[in-house]
């Protein structure tokens, strides 16, 4: 109420009751028109007016399935000679996978199949990262467990071409976890682990699939 | 031990949290994920950046100081807003209170509409009363703080150094607000001195209302479609 915090706007220029209602109404209608014609198709892939399709705005929001590999993913090998992407991670543009390709029940790899069991010693309250190198579409099945206590984990991946941008696949605090990963892009994929205990623990990580180990990730014994 | 409990709480929330438009992403998020322990200056920077680059906050600032001519009034406003958002930012993260970020952001959009409407003298013209501007700013400060809290929880905050990092973030928000305010105030003052200001004031506040309604619609659509986005 006080004039200190509510200076009176010069009333001469203020709209009348009718003018105000008209402006409020027009604001709302204009805003909703923009939301329904532009924002919904461009951001949410909903096109109630059909304008999104007409203008191409719908293309901005092609649904990218959260848990399926992004473009560049390895489609099942249908042609002879198809390879598991470029080993050096160089960017040979891969054709965007069709819905059928990404949803295919079976995948075929030329890369060698491997299995590893890694003992990861962790200091009291210590933390480290353990990651493996994978090609897009490469599959990994894993299970890890702590010999006692719990570990905070963040399963994530970083692109070979853009190591600064990590993509998190999931976080939690647990004594262990199992699952699978289909690498959404070429790069390193794995876990950030943090010992939640005041005592040393050992995390045992078992992996099988199509990936490469990286050196010098574990503390020197 | 306390931070550990807090972390567990935040993690519980994180697992159910959809990510949204004006979050903290890219390499900033990667930094936060990889940093552990107290990181005072980086979190101050992130807080300031969040404020300076957040168009919803900036629009609200423009609306609030549109007709504030006296520096003292600006200071009063800043204090009210700072108290509001500090309370909910700290309380939100510490207690693990989680408000759906889309709804919070929709309310922030509403705050922009409110301010544009208020600047047009709407409350007095339509309802015959003038809501207390200080309380209004305080309330919207509380809401903005909830927004900041959800955004901070959205980052995979390391359990180590959660509290100092959160306070640093809050301090950064304050700094960012002062920086933004300085720039907006400078531009507004220059604009007010032009002869066209009063003629354009009505149009400008109508545009503010439109922008606020768009932000609202955008966030409500996100809520309705339960939209998830990968950072």
Please give a structural write-up.
The complex is a heterodimer of chains A (221) and B (231). Chain A has helices at residues 17-44, 51-55, 99-102, and strands spanning 114-122, 127-134, 139-146, 151-159, 166-174, 176-182, 187-195, 201-209. By secondary structure, chain A is an alpha+beta fold. In chain A, the strands form two sheets. Chain A has a four-stranded antiparallel β-sheet, with no helix packed on it. A four-stranded antiparallel β-sheet of chain A has the order 2-7-4-5, with no helix packed on it. In chain A, β4 (151-159) and β5 (166-174) form a beta hairpin. The longest helix of chain A has 28 residues, at 17-44. The termini of chain A are far apart. Chain B has 231 residues and is an all-alpha fold. Chain B contains ten helices and no strands. Chain B has helices spanning 2-15, 26-34, 40-52, 55-64, 71-95, 101-119, 122-127, 133-154, 162-193, 197-224. In chain B, α5 packs antiparallel against α9. The longest helix of chain B is centred in the last third of the chain and has 32 residues, at 162-193. Chain B is globular, with a radius of gyration of 18 Å. Chains A and B meet through α1, β4 and β5 of A and α1, α2, α5, α6 and α7 of B.
| Alpha carbon gap, first and last residue of chain B | 30 Å
* Oligomerization category of the chains in this entry: heterodimer
Low-confidence stretches of chain A: 1-8, 63-101
Radius of gyration of chain B equals 18 Å
Major sheet size, sense and barrel closure of chain A? 4 strands, antiparallel
Counting DSSP H or I runs of 4 or more residues, the number of helices of chain A is 3
